[in-house]
Design brief:
The chain is α/β, with parallel strands linked by helices. It has 8 helices and 11 strands.
Length: 231
């Protein structure tokens, strides 16, 4: 992971923007800032950041809405959400909108740095695989080497988190993997186990004909998840 990655910090708190801009710059990142979602959109018209650090509650468009909109546009850049609201349902809302990680305020800058680096590694690095060649999921094909999902009409967009999760499952097909194992392989902390459930739900919408009756990505009650490739 290059320490010259470009980070866009979006927060209406000018003091926090200044602090994060200085801290991330001192740690080798290029940093741009925006005070609200509209300004962030303006900047992303001209430059594509490698990751977003994004406040949830802002004047105008919220961070949740901005993230969901970016995902709908197939933007795959990692998103780290910041919020003063740390209830489980708030974290789930963040992950459901497409965020890759979630950090409650107040936070230690060092923790934000570590989470940001982990997100960028997941986005940039291939997940080691045990199997070689593509994995068939009905009419879809997942290239384990390139972590790319393709259908009859071409590539199917996956976010960085969805791609990393599918690659981790495809590395050990027909083997039940616990939420803890998956969170560890994706370099998430213990709170990431809830995020795995959200990522699984989103991934099923892309690989299953009927996400409510999955053929390929199964839940094993009390144990975790298993990917069962097939035609």
């Amino acid at each position: 992971m290059s320490e010259e990655a470009h980070i866009l910090v979006v927060d209406d708190d000018s003091r926090l923007r200044t602090l994060l801009s200085r801290y991330l710059s001192e740690n080798g990142f290029r940093v741009s800032t925006a005070a609200h979602a509209a300004e962030a959109r303006d900047k992303m018209r001209f430059v594509q950041p490698d990751a977003l650090v994004l406040d949830v509650m802002m004047p105008g468009e919220s961070g949740l809405s901005l993230t969901a909109s970016l995902r709908a546009e197939n933007a795959a850049m990692p998103v780290l959400m910041l919020t003063a609201r740390g209830a489980p349902e708030d974290r789930i809302a963040g992950f459901e909108s497409g965020a890759d990680d979630y950090l409650g305020k107040p936070f230690e800058p060092r923790e934000l740095l570590l989470r940001l680096r982990a997100m960028l590694r997941r986005a940039a690095a291939s997940v080691p695989v045990v199997v070689s060649g593509p994995i068939r999921l009905g009419k879809l094909e997942f290239d384990t080497g390139r972590a790319e999902l393709r259908g009859m009409q071409g590539p199917i967009h996956l976010t960085g988190g969805e791609s990393a999760l599918l690659a981790a499952l495809a590395a050990r097909p027909n083997e039940v993997l616990s939420r803890e194992d998956l969170a560890a392989s994706l370099e998430m902390d213990e709170s990431g186990e809830r995020a795995i459930d959200v990522q699984v739900t989103r991934l099923r919408r892309k690989i299953e004909a009927d996400p409510r009756e999955p053929r390929f990505l199964h839940t094993v009650r009390g144990r975790g998840y298993v990917l069962k490739p097939g035609i």
